[in-house]
Amino acid sequence: MRLASTRDPLRVSTFRDALLAGLAPDGGLYQPLDDYDLRSLLEQPHRPGGQDGTDRSDGFAPLAADAAEALLADEFDNIRELTRSALTFPVPLAELEPGITVLEVFHGPSCAFKDVGASFLAATMDATLADSGKRAVVLVATSGDTGSAVGRAFVGRSQIDVVILYPSGRVSPLQEKQLTTIGANVVALEIDGAFDDCQRLVKAAFVDRGLRAAVAITSANSINIGRLIPQAFYYLHGYRQAVAAGAQRIVFSVPSGNFGNLTAGVLARRWGMRAERFVAATNINDVVPEYLAGLEFTPRRSVRTIANAMDVGNPSNFERLQAIFPTREKMREMIVGSVSTDEQMRETMRDVYERRERFIDPHTAAGVRAAREYRRDVDGSAHVVVVSTADPAKFPETVSTACGASPPVPRQLAGIESLPKRSIEMAAETEELKRFLLDRFAK
Ligand SMILES: *Cc1c(COP(=O)(O)O)cnc(C)c1O
Predict the structure, then answer these.
(1) How remote is the CA of residue 387 from the centroid of ligand 1, in Å?
(2) I need a labelling partner for 218 at 20 to 30 A (CA). Which of 28, 127, 265, 292 fits?
(3) How far apart are CA 182 and CA 193, in angstroms?
(4) 119, 85 Cβ separation under 8 angstroms
(5) How far apart (Å, rounded) are the C-alpha atoms in residues 187 and 175?
(6) What's residue 243's pLDDT?
(7) 118 lines ligand 1 (CB under 6 A)
(8) Distance 211 CA to ligand 1 centre (A)
């Protein structure tokens, strides 16, 4: 696979190099250069699996392995096994109501779709480091959800340690338990500060040459191409399931914050998936829907909402979308914006529970509301697949307040409250983080 920076199409890189670098040297994001034709994969029959995450043979892993082989066989001779070992959970498509289905991308280890990208990244990064006999430390700042997906994906990997920084007292009790009970090669640093402080510390570590000479640090954030590519695979899988169920003219509704999820869908389409369009479903952090509506793209501070994983005021993957769609008109042909307020997400959670007997999380609620709006205002005969990004049990307070009942707890989260929390408390001081990393990891 050849990749190039969004800021310099002539700077070509391999997947392996892009994976370890994260960001391109010119500050741009890596983007696949070539087009692939994966249509033949979509024609293979789909074997339906269980709807509740208990049946592991729903066909996602084999399809992902085929797709990964088509893209990356040049760089990994065992890419099929790597992919299968990373993506061990099903991604079923469930009925919601006429014209709308829900693609459940949340049956992975941390119960959110970020598990797909993080697991594939962990597998390919570990293999790349092992081939060169190197080790690395993944540093990740989290406001709640990314940290546990990354921690779970990397636990037990031989070449990599993970250090998660999270803001003390500012993540939910369940999120904190998910972050601090992984153990083994995954350490949680409880920072006396806000999420912005955690991010500042991580950034300071990355620009510290002395530290980087002593400890090989790397990132696993959502701009890494190793997280983006595998996300295209669940679109192929969702599309194939929808077609098998008789759907035509398929549109994806995508709960969006940093826009990695939606960008992956656009890649899948470039590689042969015949989706008609994408709906970008945001909360009131709506700089992309604003742009699509004709205003300037104006990044701004994020505001807090009940769909907090989408509280992003300056979505980093917008740069990738702009590289793919050079004009606003081109982007508008493919992407439609839809904005939901907290109240609208609560109403949708309640309505879906009362009328469809289903719990959905607040992010998915923005996606469902956008899907209904699209069918009402744009195209009533399209079939909309909502990409469901998290298990409702990850947001128990918000969901039960909206629905008046509590969502069932999946096996990944069962009993987690009673596990002992293991974190290292730290002041929000660059020097302290540096000393910790040197003491623990310097060769
Ligand atoms: C991260 C996240 C999103 C947003 O995904 P992007 O790729 O950043 O657009 C939506 N929902 C949930 C539950 C998430 O964790």
Answers:
(1) 10
(2) 265
(3) 22
(4) no
(5) 15
(6) 95
(7) no
(8) 31
